[in-house]
Amino acid sequence: MQDGYKIEMKDITKHFGGVKALNHVSLKIKKGEIHALIGENGAGKSTLMKILSGAYQKDEGQIFIDGKEVKITSPKDAKDLGIAVIYQEFMLAPDLTVAENISIDRLAATGALIDWRRLKKIAGDQLAKLGFNTIDPGTKVGNLSIAYQQIVEICKCLTRNADVIVFDEPTAVLTFTEIEKLFEIIRRLKAEGVSIIYISHRLDEIFELSDNITVLKDGGYVDTVPASSITKEILVSMMVGRTITQMFPKRNARIGEEILKVENLNAGTMVKDVSFTVRSGEILGFSGLVGAGRTETMRAVFGADKIDSGKVTYFGKEVHFKHPKEAVGSGFGFLPEDRKKQGLLLEQSIRINTTLASIHKVTNKLDIINHKREKKYVRELLEGINTKYGSAEDNADSLSGGNQQKVALAKWVFADCKCIVFDEPTRGVDVGAKTEIYKIMNKLAEEGVGIIMISSEMTEIIGMCDRVIVMRQGRVSGELNKELIEENALIKYAMGV
């Protein structure tokens, strides 16, 4: 093994057209090491891992496994070499069982007939090994929680004898307790000699788990440092190339009149007798565990889901939004949690995505779009929020995750909304982009917009909100004013303590 390294990626370079996505990047991982890979969106983390997994081919450089140079030209090559990647979007078949998913590429390994008993035993043994023997191998994966689906992904990797596992933003949709369980599994894998590459924008996780940290910036290698020898402040400076003295920028809160009042709202099985108010210039946080009913509450208010009972008052007038179009027409915006499926039209241009919610602002009396005016608005708006893009005519899917989120956000800034729901606005977004998004939210609040922020990051809730509603099992379990917002109180209300 070369210098004791399980994996060495040396001087990896990758071009996409005229863009150099990776420029002589190197990465070294030891056996049984948890190695964090961090950087802003667009830094090259995903591209590097796709080269390691065989999804992309490098243009230059070398890859060594156990000291021997290897050629990885396909995902099968990577799998045969013991390399597995667990992506944020799981590679599972929801209509197949747990056992079928775990052995999906070996279903007929013993001949024309499938040995179902053997498949279930393989799945059961692997689940028990990870401490999840409560998961029935015969259950359809689509019926499992997100956390349990992730366990199935890990089992699938381990039954293929993977000794290098890449975790890409693994905690993005997990609750506090599920995250702790995942960390236990990762530490157990480390103890068994599995090498872990851990990608996350959550610095607390990076410091809690990792042995070493490699930083990428703009497709280039910055440095590799022991986690024990560096501070968050220095790490952030390495990532973004500047010092962020304050993660959460100060805001001169001028909280005004009540603009939204929700009383005794009931909707489906996830929203039970929910009441709250929002004032102009206020950032109201919604905290709680995943599945507590926060998103469902806002979807009902916005008109995306049917309200069973309750009263919604907007600017002093009772409203009954039957469709999101009615809410938008009344100046009510909603930045959804899933930007790829709900927040953007990925195969449409950045320009179209930016003006989509308020196209009337760039049309004449005959409803013909004034493209010159539209392009001017888009350019000024995206420059104002530091969006990195090539051309406004490029498709939205050409952008990094952080810049996609900025375009999704710009759509509601352009729409001149008086109240906006931000559902997990910084999920999967790097530290630098997070701060810029916070600045945009603060600016909107200072202009009198009422902001509702749903977030699973307690530091974000504490740093940004004037007031917090905590939900549990579809109900409001607590409300905290600014001076009382702290981690223990949020956890107690969220868990019903």
Task: Lay out the secondary structure.
Blueprint: E1 5-16, E2 19-30, E3 34-38, H1 45-52, E4 60-65, E5 68-70, H2 75-80, E6 83-86, H3 98-102, H4 116-129, H5 146-159, E7 164-168, H6 176-191, E8 195-199, H7 203-209, E9 212-217, E10 220-226, H8 232-240, E11 258-267, E12 271-279, E13 283-288, H9 294-302, E14 309-314, E15 317-319, H10 324-329, E16 332-335, H11 339-343, H12 350-355, H13 371-384, H14 401-414, E17 419-423, H15 431-446, E18 450-454, H16 458-464, E19 467-472, E20 475-481, H17 487-495
Helix pairs in contact: 4-5, 14-15
Largest sheet: 6 strands, mixed
Derived from helix and strand composition plus strand pairing, the structural class reads alpha/beta
Overall pLDDT score: 87
Cα-based radius of gyration, to the nearest Å: 24 Å
Give me the number of helical elements.
17
- Beta content comes to 25-35%
Using the coordinates above, name the CATH class of the largest domain. Answer: Alpha Beta
Name of the CATH superfamily of the largest domain: P-loop containing nucleotide triphosphate hydrolases
Low-confidence stretches: none
How many domains in all?
2
CA(first)-CA(last) distance:
51 Å
What is the level-2 CATH architecture name of the largest domain? 3-Layer(aba) Sandwich
Order of strands, widest sheet: 6-7-8-3-9-10
Shape: globular
CATH topology of the largest domain: Rossmann fold
Number of strands: 20
